[in-house]
Amino acid sequence: MAYTVPEPKIFACSASTELAEKIAKAFGSELGKVHFSRFSDGEFQPSFEESVRGARVFIIGSTHPSSENLMEMLLMLDAAKRASARHITAVMPYFGWARQDRKDKPRVPIAAKLVANLLETAGATRIITMDLHADQIQGFFERPVDHLFASTVFLPYLRSLNLENLSIASPDMGGSKRAYAYSKFLSSDVVICYKQRKKANVIEYMELIGEVEGKNVVLVDDMVDTAGTLTKAADLMMERGALSVRAIITHPILSGDAYDRIEKSQLTELIVTDSIPLKQQSDKIKVLSCADLFADVMHRVHHNTSISSKFLM
């Protein structure tokens, strides 16, 4: 009797349900049913309400704070493993805890490596994610990692703006590689912001490396948290004679006073993906969906076809 490979099943963590619905629709499927039981002390238990035995399972969920989002992903992976799923792919548009990718001072954890270990122990046989904070995090896994780039989402929009005298900028030295990659595709100049911090999220000093006078500047980065660096860089560039300053940032964490800073800044526009749902709406923030990108890659993974065309950078 011939064995037929079951169709893949797609499930969503609760914080990423809206994006997961878009991905499932683009994939040509529907989200699987998951029920969450909650105890009075806050403990919760996910339960798949349909069989996943022998199936390829995609579990979609970004692991931005709070830590419940990570815990939810781990519990769902474990549930799929114990329900005898054939392949279990953790689809993480935003891979949280990635800023702790090394020991930058004594007696601190390497949280990104710990999270990688947790995901594999919980049952993930593959990871699909986008714009990791540091490329080397892929090496923390012993399982395949498909590291996608949001440039495939951003570049068509950026080209549609038809900006003259375009200059790509990085808000810090660490993002210079990303800025140079964008500049290569757009045939533009590059500007780097050099900054010194007193502590996390607090900038003491910032200077520009490169000229912005008479340029339409586009800042590129993987994430925006408090928006302190981003708005300071935009204001400094406008002071130095830039015609306009936009930003394309993959993951809109936007914590603390971020929304207020963006509204008061000289940023023309902040362009983000929907890897993390916005906490509030803003006329200055434009959201481009990454659903089609993830749906396409998931389809290729399921059918064992190449995804190299998705790597623009």
TrEMBL record:
Q: What SUPFAM superfamilies does its record include?
A: PRTase-like
Q: Which GO MF terms does the UniProt record name?
A: ATP binding; kinase activity; magnesium ion binding; ribose phosphate diphosphokinase activity
The UniProt record lists the Ribose-phosphate pyrophosphokinase N-terminal domain at 9-123
Q: Which Pfam families match?
A: Pribosyl_synth, Pribosyltran_N
A Gene Ontology cellular-component term? ribose phosphate diphosphokinase complex
The record's annotation in InterPro entries points to: PRib_PP_synth_CS, Pribosyltran_N, PRTase-like, PRTase_dom, Rib-P_diPkinase
The EC number(s) this enzyme carries: 2.7.6.1
Alphabetical UniProt keywords: ATP-binding, Cytoplasm, Kinase, Magnesium, Metal-binding, Nucleotide biosynthesis, Nucleotide-binding, Transferase
Reaction(s) the record says it catalyses: D-ribose 5-phosphate + ATP = 5-phospho-alpha-D-ribose 1-diphosphate + AMP + H(+)
Q: Which GO terms describe its biological process?
A: 5-phosphoribose 1-diphosphate biosynthetic process; purine nucleotide biosynthetic process; ribonucleoside monophosphate biosynthetic process
Asked if Methyltransferase is a keyword of the record, the answer is no
For this protein, the record's NCBIfam families field holds: PRK01259.1 (NF002320), ribP_PPkin (TIGR01251)
Q: What is this protein called?
A: ribose-phosphate diphosphokinase
Q: Which organism is it from?
A: Imtechella halotolerans K1
Q: In the record, what lineage is assigned to the organism producing the protein?
A: Bacteria, Pseudomonadati, Bacteroidota, Flavobacteriia, Flavobacteriales
